[in-house]
């Protein structure tokens, strides 16, 4: 117990860093991913190609490499970002590809009668996507999006390698300073992640049941 | 395309509009590409001499990147084999009838799925020495990849086993096979075939995650690129930085796309197999993300 009290400020800061990193990156990924999914079903070929290219590239590149480009590569084209901002953008861009795939599978799962009906009512592509298809698509992809979110929270640990003192980075620091209490150090870090992922998993399953469409 | 119902077969007006948007879209994308190229060119990143270093054997760069690729593949290959074997074992264990097998196996799977891979690797590399176990960067990285991915793969296999039609199991028992025979001769082969796409997606993730070796100092592709940069910087400044990172990224993408293509090929071949019949794709909650958390329903 003494260990937790002694290191509380450090652990709290690390936890808050992980949490804010996750929330900001998650927001970026959700917005960008939805946009990409919409592009992939659009009638305009170059936009469809662009979105496909983006998704395939990011799904086949390690997140660490994305980090590299943002933190060491961007200065080469005269944009420098801080370590934290760079980490948010890296995780966000990477996760957006997975969000796009999830949302697209949701769009494909909406019965085609819905889209046909909205077309028959004279809605344009944008309108039928916005008003009819996407709202239903999001409901069906709540569980996969929840999985993407939980995986993303765990992926933020890679920021530890790029000078962001989040939970995993503090594991390294604390285990050097408290060689006698390694199990406690590990426990604290794992609890930190579970503090985010377990309530998330719970919230996702609640949300899933609430918004489920009964057909 | 995927959802052609979202737009009608375009009439003359719509075709003209789509053509216009196509042009505008293409111009927009071209503008972005040109902007990046101009920015890179302005910093002299596009000079042929800067890129030629990647292919010039005298500079030692191709050899170094080749060795690094081998190091990456070594970790990934060992990790893939061990994680698949252990994952299969754990999946069977989790479905066991005996609680004293099921409960500990479930605990192990859930534990490793719940914590980030990097935490597992850090624990093996930084925390274990405190208990007198010293692991090399290679074993810590491989160990981390195996422990984490075996849990993920176990869930994939379990979902596959549960998705095999119940009649298969009943028929196998009816023929007098033992429990272990039902599992190894009837259920697992069908489960693996069904889960192949998801399985390969996860193995690609494993290969990608081997880049975490960078953080603990294992000389895989990314670390090698970084150390080449550090080697060149004193003499040439930042001249080759960008090129080396691009090279590393491209190698990853090529290898991963190749693996996915092989998987697609195998999938096509096995689905032609008349005995297997055309099986409906098994819905998996997600695929490819570093930590899929499949929720198969019984």
Question: What report would you give on this structure?
Answer:
- The complex is a heterodimer of chains A (215) and B (298).
- Chain A has helices spanning 2-6, 8-40, 45-59, 63-73, 83-109, 112-120, 125-140, 142-155, 167-177, 182-211.
- Chain A contains 10 helices and no strands.
- Chain A has a domain at 16-164: MetI-like (MetI-like fold, Orthogonal Bundle), CATH 1.10.3720.10.
- Chain A has 215 residues and is an all-alpha fold.
- The termini of chain A are far apart.
- In chain A, helix 9 (167-177) packs antiparallel against helix 10.
- The model of chain A has no long low-confidence stretch (mean pLDDT 85).
- The longest helix of chain A is centred in the N-terminal third of the chain and has 33 residues, at 8-40.
- The longest helix of chain B has 34 residues, at 61-94.
- In chain B, helix 3 (61-94) packs across helix 6.
- Chain B has helices at 12-42, 48-52, 61-94, 99-114, 117-127, 137-163, 166-174, 179-209, 213-216, 221-236, 241-272.
- Chain B has 298 residues and is mostly helical.
- Chain B contains 11 helices and no strands.
- Chain B has 2 domains: 4-46; 50-272, MetI-like (MetI-like fold, Orthogonal Bundle).
- Mean pLDDT of chain B is 81; it is low at 276-281 and 283-298.
- Chain B is 72% helix and 0% strand.
- Chain B starts with 11 loop residues before the first helix and ends in a 26-residue tail after the last helix.
- Chains A and B meet through helix 3, helix 4, helix 5, helix 6 and helix 7 of A and helix 1, helix 5, helix 8, helix 10 and helix 11 of B.
- Rg calculated over all Cα atoms of chain B: 25 Å
The share of residues in helices of chain B is: over 70%
CATH fold title of the largest domain in chain B: MetI-like fold
Supply the number of structural domains of chain B: 2
Shape of chain B: flat
Largest sheet of chain B: none
How would you spell out the order of helices and strands of chain B?
HHHHHHHHHHH
Total helices of chain B: the number is 11
How much of the sequence lies in strands of chain A comes to under 5%
Q: Are there runs of chain A of 5+ residues with pLDDT below 50, and where?
A: none
| CATH class wording of the largest domain in chain B | Mainly Alpha
Content of β-strand of chain B:
under 5%
Q: CATH class of the domain at 16-164 in chain A, please?
A: Mainly Alpha
Spatial shape of chain A: flat
